[in-house]
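Dear Dr. H.,

I hope your travels went smoothly. While you were away I took the liberty of generating a structure for the chain from your last submission, since the lab meeting agenda had it listed for discussion. I wanted you to have the full record in hand beforehand rather than looking at slides cold. The sequence, exactly as received, is reproduced here:
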Amino acid sequence: MNAHTEIIRLYKSLSEEEKGNILQELNRTSIGETVRIEEAPIVCCPHCESKLFVKNGKRGEVQKYKCKACCRVFTSKTGTSLHRLQKPEKFELYKSLMLESYSPIKQIARKVGISIQTAFDWRHKILSGTVKDDKAFEGITEIDDIWFLYSQKGRKGLDYSRKRGGSKRAGDNDFQAKLLITTDRNKTTDMSLARIGRLKKADIERKVSGRFSEGCELVSDKHRSIAAFAKSENLKHVSFKASEHTAGGEYHVQNINNMAAGLKTIVNRTLKGVSTKYLQNYANWYQIRSKKVEAEEMGRMLLQNKDAASIYLNREGIYKWFIENFSQRTYRCPVKKTYLSAFDHETLAKLNSV
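The corresponding predicted structure, in token form, is as follows:
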């Protein structure tokens, strides 16, 4: 038995508290390079996208730059999930624990030694900073929507019945949030929150149009919107009755069904339900853990996404836009917490988050 296998075996035998102590000690002795040392190449100014900038001193170990076009100062972390991070050592431990399991907020806050509010903020800073896989789908590609009951979990001030959201009506209705999943046999996958209510052709076009390579075959149940989308994209469409689950042979959507079962278990049981406002983030979390992303790779991913801070800071505005334009629901009780960054339509268009 080699040393690596022995260490893993011993680590798994420890209690949850002992595992947390070990991870904390490792982070004290070797702080993650993704936080302390700048790795992401600076291509342009994150504020105005100008390529004319110069070095402008250092902030601790981090190099600062000044843009000649807008005269603003920035670093490699500006605009990323690591922007203005106050506790880098604890953040590294937190990130490792997120990659290890789907821990509830109170539990992970206790392990890392931070407040519940900080644990919540860090979770969504990290999940807002994941880089979307934009590779083209090839060969047989499955597509389907999975349903989550509309939820306003955590929203204060609601004073009507079933105030946290939901409906007693069964089946497809205007209280079902639709997460569109598209995946091919090479495991190129897209999970996107598309609409609350019945899925439309325009929703599918908004999310995955133009991402299908030549010769791609689309497999789904007999959903009219998917059939219309396949026709508009000139894709061969293989469909079947939902009750039959397959069109025979390799034409099925079992990969999506497995993802749906796993994600629903996490959202509805492990985490006791999540707000529709953050459903996209939890889909991102599921994809990261499914791909078994390592902490070092995750760190590089967070440094690459220069829109992460804007997505995180404008989350309420993005949610409001989504509710008003892609659902029959009413936007209620805006959150009291405000941010320096204000939501605007230009930012939303750039982020392509809805």
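Two observations you may find useful: The first strand starts at residue 53 and ends at 59. The CA atoms of residues 177 and 266 lie 16 Å apart.

With kind regards,
E. W.
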